[in-house]
Amino acid sequence: MKRFFVKYTILLFAVIASLGLSSCEKKERPDKLEIMSVEKVRNDSDSSNNWIVTMTVANNTLHNVSFKSAIAYLSFGGKKICRLALTEEIVLPRRSTTKIDVPLRVTLANPILAISAFNMIVKGNYDGFTIDYNATLATRVIKKMNVSDKNVSLKEFAGAFNSEFKK
Question: Of these four, 54, 82, 102, 129, which has the most CB atoms within 10 Å of its CB?
């Protein structure tokens, strides 16, 4: 039963990550990271907490970008739905579009709310969703940079990946 809820939560994040394909309009910004598509979501092992999201990401910056660590919390109406944590470092080669496997550990705070949230996002209702995140990035020039924010709306979060919601 828990595996069912976790799969729905991962699919929720796949939907969020693939907003650039289905319900977002691209803007021309050649110096950003951009999620192009999400190809697959699969369970990594016998544990229902470890998942791998296969996605295509464009790194249009001048440097290789390394995600050393990342943690994100998805909330709806002020209630945390789940926590996602990157389990391995990810490196995006500079000036290229790459298919990568993103290993995640998922912890559901509220499985029922996670399924409701998934259904709302699939129907195009993004209001009330917020994301808290903390990531450690590195490049050849910048050895370590922490990026974090709290209560970022889903619309703003999608915008950070070079996308905009259509009205």
Answer: 82
